[in-house]
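Board notes (copied after class):
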Amino acid sequence: MEYEQILFEREGPVGIVTLNRPEKLNPFTWKMIQEILNVLHEMEKDDGIRVLVITGAGRAFSSGDDMSGAFFKGAPWEYGLDIPPFALMPQHRLITALRQLRKPVIAMINGLAHGMGSDVALACDFRIASEEARLGDIRMQKGINPGTGATFLMPQVIGLTRAVELLLTGDTIDAREAERIGLVNRTVPAGELRSTVMELANRLATGPIKAIGIAKAQIYGELGMTMDEAWAHWASTVEPVEDTEEGVKAFFEKRAPRYKGK
């Protein structure tokens, strides 16, 4: 499938989405969102793609929503998006789809990540940042409500105190500070970013992907639940995994497991 505003490539079992509007710092449009949703839909059907990496072209991960107006005239369904009238915003659909994908998603944060760009990074399961990255949510500086996931996601990731500070001031922080407060998992020199991310991606891809996907659904699904509610949620989501037998067998045979992702 050909895309206009993203690039999609495969490196073995790893799919890589690159937000590809570098001249504008990769802001999100409804078309870009639909193209990413198309990739996620294909990943759900393709067992050969086990991990997704999201990054940006040029010097930015994403500057947020496209504020030029040209890309946000009319209703989203007029642009071919499969989102009916009165549904949630397309941005909400993307954040939800990233969290619901039963495969690991890694944000490779190569540069600034603001607004919706920050929200997409927060919705990913792992965040690896370049030392050149700058993160935060500048929307409050423009009087714009951070309504595409920030108020839900950021407190989960870094805690209420720092989330309130970043969201209400609109301040941004460098990647090392982002790592210190838990906004990103790791910060590395720019020249090591891709190799670091791909090492993690391939490690995950050789793992028990079905089991990882189930655990991912349990982790996010049980946020805010009581313990009893969490037990009930676990019971409703757990299912047989073929790789479990291989993992146990490999343990007793003192060898590396050979997972099939099933």
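Comment from the instructor: The first strand starts at residue 6 and ends at 11. Strands lie at 6-11, 14-19, 51-56, 60-62, 105-109, 112-113, 126-130, 134-136, 172-174, 186-188.
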